[in-house]
């Protein structure tokens, strides 16, 4: 079936204006997935969504001296994940559910996010290296919390619970994961989605791209038969391609999202967790979900309860 090619443009620069500062971005490359911090087994045990509890009364914003002196929060985000973090073609502003999380953190530090957020568009494989190097303060890019990543960086409490699914062409005959045998399945390099699909459907043929926009282009050009990823991301892709659909049924995996932070910056993690608690109390998390995700996911959701204990 011939499908209309929808032009998808990947963002490779950070947008200026509307309170966001420019960040020069080098020529786009597709980096290899980050190597584990060491060859030793993952040291975290128990629930990997455990994070650092904010102290009674919360962490004062004045204690985040490096960020306050700089005057803005440096955040790694996506600009091609429709509904989570994508550039509005009419306003040019990068917006979405993940961007709302960043703005809430900045507003808690500075009183307003306006003029105090520097968004840097990054790939999934960039997330951990740029936090480890100190080039970013936070990453809000639909990042799954897991034990192996805790050995490399720190995470906030879970702010959204997603799950991995599969997107296919309507009428393709692919109705379940069992039908992926011998089929090409795309996911961005550096994501758990690519590892998961190889484990769940070992006879599928893995195809990688720099991001989900790259996977969508391959899909529309006939270079892959399916795309796998979090249901939030796939819902955004399906909304852009009328010939695509997300397979129904239970999610293949649990994907708890967390805000990534440098492992040494525990104070910032505690502060972010206080912000997430405030978002639950004042209804701003629920408002963001209803605006961005509920219309496509077609289901209500509640903010995950924080789990502390580190």
How would you characterize the overall build of this protein?
This protein has two domains: 66-160 and 256-297, D-Maltodextrin-Binding Protein, domain 2 (3-Layer(aba) Sandwich); 164-246, 3-Layer(aba) Sandwich (D-Maltodextrin-Binding Protein, domain 2), CATH 3.40.190. The longest helix has 17 residues, at 266-282. It has helices at residues 65-70, 97-110, 127-132, 147-150, 192-200, 212-220, 231-240, 266-282, 284-292, 294-297, and strands spanning 73-77, 80-81, 85-87, 94-95, 117-121, 138-139, 154-155, 160-162, 164-169, 184-188, 205-209, 226-230, 244-246, 255-257, 260-261. Helix 2 crosses helix 8 (266-282). With 310 residues, it is of the alpha/beta class. Mean pLDDT is 86; it is low at 1-40. It comes from Nocardioides hankookensis. This is Glutamate ABC transporter substrate-binding protein. Residues 31-41 have a biased composition (Low complexity).
